[in-house]
UniProtKB/TrEMBL annotation:
Span of the signal peptide: 1-19
A cellular component annotation (GO) from this entry: cell outer membrane
PROSITE patterns: OMPA_2
Major subcellular site: membrane
Species whose genome carries this gene: Mangrovimonas spongiae
Matching PANTHER family: LIPOPROTEIN YIAD-RELATED, STATOR ELEMENT OF FLAGELLAR MOTOR COMPLEX
Keyword Ribonucleoprotein in record: no
Cellular compartments annotated: Cell outer membrane
Name of the protein this chain belongs to: OmpA family protein
Amino acid sequence: MRNLLFLTLSLFISGSIFAQGLPDNPDPGKCYVKCITKDEFKEVTETIEVYPAYNKLEVVPATYKTVEERVLVKEATKKFVYVPATYETVEVSYVKKAGRTDLTVVPASFGKDSRTFEVYPKTSGWEYKVLEDCPSVNKEDCVAACFVEYPAQYRDVPFTTLTKDANTEDVPVAEQTTTYKKQVIKTPARVDEIEIPAEYATITKRVVDQPATTTSVTIPAKSETVTRTVLDKKGGITTWEEVDCELLTPTVLPIFYELGSARLTSASKKVIDETLVPILTDSNVNIEIMAHTDSRGNDSFNMSLSQQRANAVVNYLVGKGFSRSRMAAKGFGETRLTNRCSNGVDCSEAEHRKNRRTEFRVINNN
């Protein structure tokens, strides 16, 4: 099982490596990084509308005329005359005492029954027996293994059953009735309705003869010419590039800066020319520049200063003609000290100098 698992894992790893298109005949002790061509861009010029065309409107006021109109000055209404209702006396029957239902209890009745239970299960197993007339002095030579089966054991248990549960029987008791007198409406009350007509008058008023209108003047649109960058050629995976394995891990460069400055000295530029320029010239790999400071000074200032120093190296290489897309700059400030010299720790200048370092490494640019 272990061999099968190892073989399956080996096939999986081998398949994964070949699926990535690694070199077929790699040299021992060499490392390879996958190189990808970056997207290529171009600048295009086009004219865009920065202010739309629109219409400017001028209002022509409305004109009026005088008209007569008959208007309602008092609404029509109604007058109501109330006529009272008339009554008569009647007798009404009602229940003086409500009927009810009494209950009689019928007790429960019982019976007898029994049930058989298995009190010990059926068992079986092997038992050793010594054979009689064993010819051997050692009795263990005459031991026989016998498979023995024992039947289950049962017991009858009597119990009482409920034949009919207790219940009740209804005994009705009749209600008692009587009557009372009341007056009921013989003729309902009513309201006689009398109409009172509306009143009108004639008025004069000024109304709109010609509504307000507008005249339109078109203001033309304004345009500007802009230049923008667009994708000209899509990049992609090209090949695996051979590099020394030690270049894949951060390598410290003897690059020094003036105190609190990101300006490269002539000595530092010489280090870059001798170390990084040949790597970028002789291969298609990408590199990452990592700058660090010691713990002295403000943390946020050190982070900003380290980023400026890493950018300074990249900018210098861009000035040498190398594409900025092949380089990454990252400042770490005092977050990756190589020794104990953190904030508040008394250290020598030599110990602080070990933390003020600039590193580079080859990175896989996919």
